[in-house]
Amino acid sequence: MAEHTVEQGKEEEKEEPQMVKDLRTAVGWLRDNCHSFRGSVQEPSYLDLKKEDQEEALLKLDRAERKDDLELAKKPFMFQFQFQQDMEVFLFECHDERHLRINSMFMEF
User: Fold this and answer.
1) Mind giving me the DSSP string for the chain?
2) Under a CB-based contact definition with an 8 Å cutoff, are residues 101 and 19 in contact?
3) pLDDT of 17-56, one tens digit each?
4) Angstrom distance (rounded) from CA 51 to CA 94
5) Is the predicted pLDDT of residue 12 greater than 70, yes or no?
6) 3-state secondary structure 77-90
7) Which residue from 32, 47, 61, 64 could staple onto 69, CB 3.0 to 4.6 Å apart?
8) pLDDT at 15
9) Which residues pair with 80 in a beta bridge?
10) Are the C-beta atoms of 81 and 43 separated by less than 8 Å?
C-alpha cells in the first residue's frame, strides 16, 4: 500500500511579488499613522480586487511598455494624497526609511 505525502486537492501557494508585500507593508504603516496626515488618503485599489483581477493587474503592469500604458497599469497600486506634504511624509517613511517600492501621487480632491 502506497502512502501519499502530498495532500490531494491542495493548491500550491505562489509567493506574493515583492511589490505586493511592499504595498501591504505601506498600507499597514499608513493605517497606523493616519493621524499624522492633514488631508485624506486613498489606499491602492489593488488590495480590494478579487484574486483573478489582482493577477491581471500585475500582468498589465509587467507587460506595459509605453509610458501611457505604464501610468494606467500603475493606477491600482497608487496611494493618492490630498496634500503634497502628506505624500512627502509618507514617501520619506515608507520609501526612504523602509526601502519599500510604492507608487503615490497627490491631487486636490
Assistant:
1) -PPP-S-TTPPPPPPPPHHHHHHHHHHHHHHHTGGG-SS-EEPPGGGGS-HHHHHHHHHHHHH--SHHHHHHHHGGGEEEESSHHHHHHHHIIIIIIT----EEEE---
2) yes
3) 999 999 999 999 999 999 999 999 999 999 999 999 999 9
4) 25
5) no
6) HEEEECCHHHHHHH
7) 64
8) 87
9) 42, 105
10) no
Which residues are bridge partners to 103 per DSSP? 78
Q: What is the pTM of this model?
A: 0.81
Instruction: Give me 98's grid cell.
Output: 523602509
pLDDT surpasses 70 at 9: no
Predicted local confidence at residue 106, as pLDDT: 82
Instruction: Sheet with 103-106: list strands edge to edge.
Output: 41-42, 78-81, 103-106
